[in-house]
Design a protein that fits this description.
The protein is an all-alpha fold. It is 78% helix and 2% strand. The chain is elongated.
Length: 173
């Protein structure tokens, strides 16, 4: 039950960080360039957190000899948090500068924009990237690259090699 509460808290924290960042920009406390630096900083901080959390989940799953399907369930939750987190970052960058991304219809509502950036984030994370939405500014490109690196680390090193990682960590004990 505590895992469910922790996950709900983490989803709420992702939204709250996004709303706080957007509110700071709307209040005019930061100019566009510094706001982009803030979003990149939040993105890098969350990326560090996700790498740490995924590693901890791997170590815990190994210690508990967790079946692969249970570990995959945990990782799906983590990956959905990562995709949501980046969708919020992309949304914030776009709301501060509509030139941050190309391929976005400027007439979209807030909810439609969140859907578009959720879609974009999931495509980035899954390495499909159709190209209908592309980063057009340096801050947007940095944030997209950060998501792709995190996706690579998560998918390649943790998910695809769980069994051998599990065996090597168990041998150490």
């Amino acid at each position: 039950m505590s895992n469910i509460r922790n996950n709900v808290f983490e989803y709420l924290a992702i939204f709250m960080l996004g709303f706080l960042a957007r509110w700071i920009y709307v209040q005019g406390w930061l100019p566009e360039n510094w706001f982009a630096v803030l979003v990149i900083g939040l993105s890098l901080g969350k990326t560090t957190w996700f790498i740490f959390e995924n590693s901890q989940q791997l170590i815990k799953a190994t210690a508990q000899n967790l079946p692969y399907h249970r570990f995959l369930t945990i990782m799906v939750v983590n990956m959905s948090q990562i995709a949501l987190s980046y969708a919020v970052d992309f949304y914030c960058l776009y709301r501060a500068n509509t030139g941050s991304f190309s391929g976005i219809d400027p007439a979209l509502t807030h909810y439609e924009l969140m859907f578009e950036f959720g879609y974009f984030s999931i495509l980035n994370f899954s390495f499909f990237g159709y190209g209908d939405i592309t980063p057009a500014s340096i801050p947007a490109k940095i944030t997209v690259l950060t998501e792709i690196v995190l996706a690579f680390l998560t998918v390649i090193f943790i998910l695809s090699d769980f069994i051998s990682l599990k065996e090597s960590l168990q041998k150490r004990k």
